[in-house]
Amino acid sequence: MAVKIRPCTDLEASDPGALRAQVVASVVAQAGADVGLFYGQARLSDGRLSPTNVTATEDAAGMSEALGQGFVPMPDGTQTARRATRAFLDASTLFGSWEAFAARPATGYVRERFGLGDQIRLLAYQGCRCLGWIGAFRRWGQPRFTPSDRRRLAGLVESVTSTLAAATALAEDGLPGGSAYLIAAPDGRVAHASPEAAPWLARPGFQAELARTVRDHDRGATPAPAVALEEADASFARLHGEAGSVYLVCLRPLRRLTLSPLASLSPTQMRVAEYLAAGARRSEIAAALEVSAETVRSHVRAVYERLEVATPMELARLLEEHA
């Protein structure tokens, strides 16, 4: 499967990592930045959020460790996170002010360890599904990103999002839909595997990554019961027997973070939706919100279009599902 991405590059690529690297390089060049990074996330079977598919310029080696310590705010379904899908945001916009950003312990950690200061980034979504985020960083002491830098990057938003969506589609191509199981020896060799595990084991580099992770578990270096392994959510259980210990590994496709559809509504639209779902008439909504009937009609139209429902009953069901 090959995907040709023209907005960011004329190069034809069939590797998800290559596509993400092209996006990072394009953003760094357009932003006049020193370092670039792509950072994906998924929710694992034990409930933890895990970094996935970290792609960075050479100068950003090791940044994923810093990011794992809370450097990146997680998409949480807020309006701010939703708006971030449409524009590159700088540190002042993301954290309220440059002073608030500079005062964060994580900012100081990254400055001391990597020499990085200001940043500008884009949370990219396909619908409500999180594709990850692209960050561009400047060295500490360099001029900060300006509104003109953000305007210059505005033209990249659509192409960055489409390229990341293509990379995600490539990464998920051919993945089994359900669970797969295998038994691995402490040295990482696969002793037995269920038929469903075959597509995982056939993926380039997967067995080597699996073996490394099993050895880490055996040494106690990876105490977490679940880890992100390529595109798999891999959970580990140690089994003891007369012949020694082995590891039962369960593989499932990663669950990517998603935003609630309700995140696309403004606060006023959300109130209108709640009134509609409760059975209120439009005249009653107008009186309760102290707005005109025409304003209510406009909000109702927007609610139905954004949530892709047609009746108050469908709306009520959607609100209940995402309460």
Structure description:
The chain is an alpha+beta fold. It folds into 3 domains: 3-172, 2-Layer Sandwich (Beta-Lactamase), CATH 3.30.450; 180-256, no CATH class; 261-321, Arc Repressor Mutant, subunit A. The chain is 42% helix and 25% strand. It has 14 helices and 13 strands. It has helices at 16-31, 63-71, 79-83, 91-95, 98-102, 105-114, 147-154, 157-172, 198-201, 206-219, 267-277, 282-289, 293-307, 312-321, and strands at residues 3-4, 12-13, 35-43, 49-56, 89-90, 116-126, 129-139, 180-184, 190-193, 226-229, 232-241, 244-253, 255-256. Strands 3, 4, 5, 6, 7 and 13 form a 6-stranded antiparallel beta sheet that branches. It has a 5-stranded antiparallel beta sheet with strand order 9-8-12-11-10. The longest helix is centred in the N-terminal third of the chain and has 16 residues, at 16-31. It is globular, with a radius of gyration of 23 Å. The two termini are 39 Å apart. Mean pLDDT is 83; it is low at 1-11 and 69-84.
Shape: globular
Q: Name the poorly predicted regions.
A: 1-11, 69-84
Structural class of the helices, strands and pairings? alpha+beta
**Order of H and E elements:** EEHEEHHEHHHEEHHEEHHEEEEHHHH
Mean pLDDT reading: 83
The amount of helix comes to: 40-55%
- CATH architecture descriptor text of the largest domain: 2-Layer Sandwich
Give the count of helical stretches.
14
Question: Any idea what the radius of gyration is?
Answer: 23 Å
Largest sheet: 6 strands, antiparallel
CATH superfamily of the largest domain: Transcription factor LuxR-like, autoinducer-binding domain
CA distance, first residue to last residue: 39 Å
CATH topology of the largest domain: Beta-Lactamase
**Number of E-state strands:** 13
The domain tally reads 3
The amount of beta strand, in percent, is 15-25%
CATH class of the largest domain: Alpha Beta
